[in-house]
Amino acid sequence: MPMQFARTEPIDGQKPGTSGLRKKTKVFQRPHYLENYVQSIFDGIGGVEGKTLVVGGDGRFFNDQAIQIILRMAAANGAAKCIVGQGGIMSTPAVSHLIRKRKADGGLILSASHNPGGPDADFGLKYNGPNGGPATEAVTERIYERTKTIDCYKIIASGGMDIDTLGLRSHQGMQVEIVDPVEDYAELMESLFDFDKIAALFASGFTMRFDAMHAVTGPYAKAILEDRLGAAPGTVVNGTPSPDFGNGHPDPNPIWAKTLMDEMYGPSAPDFGAASDGDGDRNMIVGRNCYVTPSDSLALLTAQAHLAPAYAKGLAGVARSMPTSRAVDRVAESLGIGCYETPTGWKFFGNLLDAGKVTLCGEESAGTGSDHVREKDGLWAVLLWLNILAESGKSVAELLADMWKAHGRCYYTRHDYEDVESDKANAMMDALRGKLDDLPGTEAAGLTVETADEFAYDDPVDGSRSTGQGLRVTFTNGARAVFRLSGTGTQGATIRVYLEQLETDPAKLDLDPAEALAPVARAALELSDLQAMTGRDAPDVIT
Ligand code: VG1
Ligand code: CO
Fold first, then answer.
1. What pTM was computed for the model?
2. Which fold has domain 185-407?
3. How do residues 234-279 score in pLDDT, each as one tens digit?
4. Ligand 1 pocket residue status of 324, Cβ below 6 Å
5. What is the CATH number of domain 3-181?
6. Binding site membership of 344 for ligand 1 (Cβ less than 6 Å)
7. Annotated catalytic, 464?
8. How far is the CA of 489 from the centre of ligand 1 (A)?
9. Pocket lining: 500 vs ligand 1, CB cutoff 6 Å
């Protein structure tokens, strides 16, 4: 085999963040950069000789070229087989499923998720392990260690492979199987939900809009919602993956999915709206005139999952990331099931799911999923919602109102301060960290601090400990503020401030969320001195 051993400078220790390595596209395009990182992954997982890998991406700029490099490197490193989504396309949950279904040794997902794409935007690469889930902290650490010393990678010299034609071929001693990225995934969804019931709902005139945000879920949503479930043609909008996501942020929240929000709050709103992100693992749910916060969505799915065939026997337990609101805790308590609080990032759910301790998981950033794969899954959440709507005969707003009546309402918002100078962001976090012990009992903006700590997580399955996972402050009135730095940004630091206010007074379940959260928002600023320390007077994004 014509093999090239490229010698190169070390890439200087590239640390993967919350979800793989994410950088400016131009960084990934630097000579040998992607190659060095891929070799670091291969070395970090003990080599790929004789292994089978699933490879796919969200279709963003550089996706196709990066896949060619990965395939040539997998072949040179002795991999037995790569299973690749046709055209290089495969959503994150679909990759997770295929790794599991084919008992592959792992997978590589090319995506920077909700970050914008294009030559001047972002690119990313994630490695998922044999259970289909994101690399654990230990594996991530080994990959990172390798990036510090790597000076050589293996690649075959010959050029491109055909990744557009379905079928199994052999290339330089490695098998390359090009698969339909949608088929297996759609089959899995059909096995979990009552498709006849959902189809009957659409047949009865129920209307929906699904905004694929020019990203990877377009083909999945069209095949499942329109072709299999009979939703009207045009239900899926922005359904063709484009390298720059139509020049937008494929981030399913009220800011970036504003067109959908406007439609759902307009005079001819459909019954149900949803959007998904770049790589298809996130979801936004919105009813007619009724936005559902991701934290509430997790709580509601937990309360109603039994209405879908896959969860009819009930849930083993649930888990949420720490900054996600405590709404689901209240539902879990009433169901009498376990509820786990984990650090941000899907990799922390893997052990709980593998051990059968939890069935559903979720994050405030619009990720929800279950034990059907080991990733969050945007379209899965949409289908579970549809199944619940079909089975209950209620609207989104009615379901939410029922839940709030039974368990109280957790008003929730997240304030992001983006591209803050790293020094200033760290100084702010350090200062707050330094006074956590003194906070209980003190007052801030009229609220009294109840507890204050830095979140650390002891994994109940493998006993590993993850420290430094965010600063949290609770108040005696049921409010909570959480501060952490993002691990997915590509420029400066992003400070995330998560705010929550529990309200159980039946007369106060319908307040303007911004108003309900104003006191805790003020208290968070007072405690952190964020404005003075960062020079920012307002968040860049409020979701
Ligand atoms: C963000 C979210 C987190 C999510 C991560 C990856 O991380 O807050 O909940 O798991 O993105 O999501 P951070 O560190 O920027 O807050 V995505 O859809 O990559 O796959
Ligand atoms: Co994503």
1. 0.93
2. Alpha-D-Glucose-1,6-Bisphosphate; Chain A, domain 3 (3.40.120)
3. 999 999 999 999 988 999 999 899 999 999 999 999 999 999 999 9
4. no
5. 3.40.120.10
6. yes
7. no
8. 9
9. no
